TrEMBL record:
InterPro entries for this protein: Oligpept_transpt, OPT
UniProt protein name: Oligopeptide transporter 4
Compartment annotation: Membrane
Membrane topology: Multi-pass membrane protein
Example of a GO biological process term: protein transport
One function term, GO molecular function aspect: oligopeptide transmembrane transporter activity
Keywords: Membrane, Peptide transport, Protein transport, Transmembrane, Transmembrane helix, Transport
Cellular component terms (Gene Ontology): membrane
């Protein structure tokens, strides 16, 4: 079916947006996004609905299914983006073209050739199916830790409402911020350019010998074929940690050389999934963002951690692995968390006193310290530098003050809009009351959860309001950072810390507060990114809104059903000590989520980072983060001749660079930074023509090839595993061992 949900205003023909009229475009946008539009292309079609809804449901199912496995695979929306093209063309050939009238409108199952605007909306459906890049809905982790880790109960109905409200709440924040971070040309959303490049490659006809479509197909086949090697035949090349091979009996050398469980010195990878995991494709990130991330990574992994671990044995670090997400006793043994939870799902202080204080690996402890510093540095950096944000254009970085950003925001209301905003004004905009209604309904249901079902979610109604206030305040600045750097600072630690101080001893209240405060903001940023893709591709805004909303509801529902099915049918799921050897159901992501609920919720920050804890000195990182930008500011004032590059030192980005570690590993970072430097510095600078045509297309092809082959391997070959030296990991078994004398750990030498 096809209907006119909204009619474009203007000529019904292919139109060129003309010049920029003095409104500057970021160079990557100018090189990638077309300035033409055909308002007559149908978008609200039966093909779009059929392919979009099915793909959304399938991606939701598979991604939630894979999320519980030792090596979780996120099947990205790029897979659907590629597969939808032949399916769309097939439906355009076989569906009847007869038109009929109903409800005062003219309808047709086949309004013409499959077009790029239908394809974009299918991609939006698919993106919802991947929880906007997260794989599954973040709030599913609450159900998982309650049932699998704490081994308590929660009703399916409460779990479904919790997931739906946390996923949909972000629409309200997105609606309030949309004018500010979608329409201005300087809010360019680098990740959207990958989708634009791929869509153009799939739909535009070119006369060149090597068209973008042909290049994509070749790169896709190469990526698809090669992944059989690291994905099945020879997994060891995912992390080639040759230092471990050279020193098979040395704990210290394996800690240094392991790319997965150590510092990753000398390690490298031949697996694209390792390069793009956690940080997304390095071909998308601007080079200045790569530099900031690398500086922060080196600061932590190659300077602070080695000195603290081997030189000072900080926090008795040698009793524990150098890199681990597990929680330990003071003797170096695994902490028994379930033993300190009472019948009211709160901390049992007598049992806690018996086991003693919780200890962390040095890496995890310092990561928390740096997250404290990042929060404080953000405040002082913005205050001192008048809200300066960094953006890369043609050959140099440009500093934009908060005043300038405000002036650019005003372009959304008056003044000269850029070419894309002018072209989008042909379409009816989304009424604000749509967003306000959705925000009000979601808040009402969330308050219902916190009052009627308070025993299951533990979060009081006022806690929900505080979490929403945090999300509202931070959505705009974090959206700006994401729109200009392709990195999204998280609010997870600050929300956990706040609730842990207010309501210690209640783990589920803490994670619910985090999900409503942090994840609703993150969802808003994702929605805004999709709106920018629709802005670039000239999709009617109302269609974008409805597809995003419907896709989110479908995905959240399927995520909940799949999680409930696995948690009730797989014996001992997520319980590594009870699973049979080689079982894939170890839930690595949920393990990190569980640890956070223990640290911040069950035990509480006062017993870990406060006066009752072992890591109270880490609170000085707040002060350090607050002061460090002052030195940069003073240096810029003292050396005005060098102020232009000194002001580019963005300490919040540097200090927060390793926010994904753990579960991300050092090898993820070194590989990501290396590839990002090659493509977004050397190739962008010296082969700009090639970069313009193929960079984002190559990124999409690499992601799609790995995702498709990952699914093929799982369903076709998972029952036929290979067993030889090259399938047994990175061969750094001693990297997780302690180095302190007398500590007994299974599989480790006693020094």
């Amino acid at each position: 079916m096809e209907m006119e949900l909204e009619r474009p205003r203007g000529k019904a023909a292919v139109e060129d947006g003309g010049g920029d009229d003095g409104v500057e475009l970021v160079e990557q946008v100018r090189l990638t996004v077309p300035t033409t539009d055909d308002p007559t292309l149908p978008v609200w079609t039966f093909r779009m609905w059929a392919i979009g809804v099915v793909s959304c449901a399938l991606l939701s199912f598979f991604n939630q299914f894979f999320a519980y496995r030792t090596e979780p695979i996120v099947i990205s929306q790029i897979t659907v983006q590629v597969a939808a093209l032949p399916v769309g063309h097939f439906m355009a050939r076989v569906l009847p073209e007869r038109r009929f009238s109903a409800l005062g409108r003219e309808w047709s199952l086949n309004p013409g050739p499959f077009n790029v605007k239908e394809h974009v909306l299918i991609c939006i459906f698919a993106n919802a199916g991947t929880a906007f890049g997260n794989g599954g809905a973040y709030a599913v982790g609450i159900i998982t830790i309650i049932k699998a880790f704490y081994r308590r109960s929660i009703s399916f109905f409460v779990g479904l409402l919790l997931i739906l409200t946390t996923q949909v709440l972000g629409y309200g924040w997105a609606g309030l911020m949309r004018k500010h971070v979608v329409e201005p040309s300087q809010m360019w959303w680098p990740a959207s350019l990958v989708q634009v490049s791929l869509l153009r490659a799939l739909h535009e006809k070119e006369e060149r010998r090597m068209t973008r479509g042909k290049f994509f197909l070749i790169a896709l086949i190469c990526s698809f074929t090669w992944y059989t090697v690291p994905g099945y035949i020879f997994p060891t090349i995912t992390a080639v940690s040759w230092v471990c091979w050279a020193f098979p009996k040395s704990v210290t050398m394996q800690q240094i050389g392991s790319g997965m469980s150590g510092l990753g010195v000398g390690a490298f990878t031949l697996d694209w999934s390792m390069v793009a995991a956690f940080l997304s494709s390095p071909l998308v990130a601007p080079f200045f963002a790569v530099v900031n991330v690398y500086v922060g990574f080196v600061l932590l992994v190659y300077i602070i951690v080695p000195v603290a671990y081997w030189a000072f044995d900080l926090y008795d670090a040698s009793k524990f692995p150098v890199f681990s997400t597990d929680l330990f006793t003071g003797a170096g043994q695994m902490y028994n968390i379930t033993a300190i939870v009472n019948d009211r799902f709160e901390i049992d202080l007598d049992a806690y006193a018996k086991q003693g204080k919780i200890h962390l690996s040095l890496f995890l402890a310092l990561s928390y310290g740096l997250s404290f510093a990042t929060i404080a540095a953000t405040l002082s950096h913005v205050a001192l530098f008048n809200g300066k944000y960094v953006m890369m254009n043609a050959d140099a970085a440009t500093l934009i003050t908060s005043t300038e950003i405000y002036q650019r925001f005003r372009q959304s209301y008056k003044g000269k809009p850029d070419v894309h905003t002018r072209m989008m004004r042909r379409y009816d905009d989304i009424p604000n009351w749509w967003f306000y209604t959705m925000l009000g309904l979601t808040m009402a249901v969330s308050l219902l959860l916190c009052t009627v079902f308070k025993d299951e979610v533990q979060l009081p109604w006022w806690g929900l309001l505080v979490a929403c206030a945090i999300a509202f305040v931070f959505t705009l600045p974090i959206s700006i950072i994401t729109a200009t750097t392709n990195t999204t600072p998280g609010l997870n630690v600050i929300t956990e810390y706040c609730m842990g101080l207010i309501m210690p001893g209640r783990p589920i209240a803490n994670v619910c507060f985090k999900v409503y405060g942090y994840m609703s903001m993150n969802q808003a940023v994702s929605f805004l990114g999709d709106f920018k893709l629709g802005h670039y591709m000239k999709i009617p805004p109302k269609s974008m809104f409805l597809v995003q909303f419907i896709g989110t509801v479908i995905a959240a529902t399927v995520n909940t059903i799949v999680a409930w099915w696995l948690l009730t049918t797989v014996p001992h799921i997520c319980q590594r000590e009870l699973l049979p050897e080689g079982s894939p159901w170890t839930c690595p992501g949920d393990r990190v989520f569980f640890d956070a609920s223990v640290i911040w919720g069950l035990v509480g920050p006062r017993r870990i980072f406060g006066p009752l804890g072992y890591y109270n000195a880490l609170n000085w990182f707040f002060l350090g983060g607050l002061i460090l930008p002052v030195f940069v500011w003073l240096l810029a004032r003292a050396l005005p001749a060098h102020a232009s590059w000194i002001r580019l030192i963005n300490l919040p980005v540097v200090l927060g660079a390793t926010a994904n570690m753990p579960p991300a590993t050092p090898l993820n970072y070194t590989a990501w930074c290396s590839v990002g430097t090659v493509f977004n510095f050397f190739i962008f600078r010296y082969r700009k023509g090639w970069w313009q045509r193929y960079n984002y297309v190559l990124s999409a092809a690499m992601d799609a090839g790995v995702a498709i082959m990952g699914v093929v391997i799982y369903f076709a070959l998972s029952g036929h595993p290979l067993d030889w030296w090259g399938t047994r990991g990175e061969h750094c078994d001693l990297a997780t061992c302690p180095t302190a004398r007398g500590v007994v750990v299974d599989g480790c030498p006693v020094l």
